[in-house]
Amino acid sequence: MLRYICLSDQHAGALTSLLTPLTEITLDGQSPVTRALGEAFDAFLAQQQDQPQLIVLGDLLDLQFSDGARAAQAGVAHLKALTAGGRLDKTLIATAGNHDHALWTDARLGLEVKDRLSPTPGLIHRKATRAFDSDDRVQSRMLTEIAHLVGFADVDMRYPNIGFGDRKKAVFLHHGHFVERPYRLMSDLKDFLDGAPRRWLTVEEIAAENAGWLDFFWASLGETGIADEAYDLYQSLLTAAGFRAKSADWTEVVADKLSEALPFSGNLALREALKRATRVGFDASLGAMLDTERRAVIDPLTTEGWDGLRWYIDGVARSQIAAELDGDVEDLTFVFGHTHKPFADRVISRASPNPVRVFNTGGWTLNGPRHDTAVGASMVLIDDALNVVAVRLMGTPQQGKVPRAYVEQVGEVRPGGNQFAIEVARWLEGSQAAWENLALVAEEAYRVRQKMLLRMTNPDEVA
Hints:
This protein is of the alpha/beta class. It folds into 2 domains: 2-219 and 299-457, Metallo-dependent phosphatases (Purple Acid Phosphatase, chain A, domain 2), CATH 3.60.21.10; 235-290, no CATH class. The protein has 13 helices and 12 strands. The mean pLDDT is 85.
């Protein structure tokens, strides 16, 4: 029985997202890829009789560097395409990512208001929800309204983790931003100031300590009225040439302002020293942000990325699993997104005596102007026995062609695992024509966005 379908990193509203209409606006505000995905999704689900629940694993909406209205409209269009056939359960399961972290903030603050007004106030700062308890769900007003518009009756939102199962077998899901060090920067700063580095963090610590940082820089610049400027800045940093040009411009501006404010403002040597110091500062801050998992262009994760993944499973995930399930899990699968590079593999972890199966959902955006081989989108499928397989839906064009959809799994050793993969492959074959159409539509969508990014990052070199 197909129980859950997990998608992530749609980035609705971002111009680099294949799900955001550009000039090719179609009926109901759907991009060509949105419409083709909806048709393929419906054809796939028509091959079986279940009504699985949809899991949106963060960054459904691109609220960071995109206009909020455009993000909401593209998000509604995307979910409408998935629900049009009426083949999904009426409860949407969701979490927030770094680009739509504002959804969690909205939900958390709503709970805090109720708590503060209670005659017997208790918890004031809501740090996280329980992963394995759907009764501990929260409600984001924006996400709930979007869900209702497309036909969902309820939203089960948990943050930052979602879990299913028990100590014998479990699936643990996280958007993936806390796997990377820049998104837990405030925890690192706290350790530095305290002079006591912590090897592991609990879910409450990592979520609470970095909530303000995520809200300040990562979640909602698109709502500040400078969405276009923020988007231009973000895209300029996607290439080395773009970063050099932008940092050179900022170095001049900052050095001029500082030299004017300091004594001896006419001293040329002082101004040059300020320029060098400013350039070093930009390289150490924004330059470091470029060296994240999205910049690994061939492999799904860098060495640091694998280390961060193991750190999160060994520490945050393990502590929450132990607290809620009273111990480690014998058979554990970890699902995440965020990097936009789907893969399936195993890692050795303290959280389970057996290797942990790891699936990445990929994403629906173009990370940069190159058609990197690792970028693409998957949907992760979970059956009622918590067997997990992925369907690699698409990837960037290789030799001009987007690869067709196929089943991807980690070698199964438990009963039922292979059978579930066989069933998924059969459903995929029965909807093959629709998935082939999605690949054809995606080829053109990727090319359009590649050309757009090249114009933005190298305007003098692209006709």
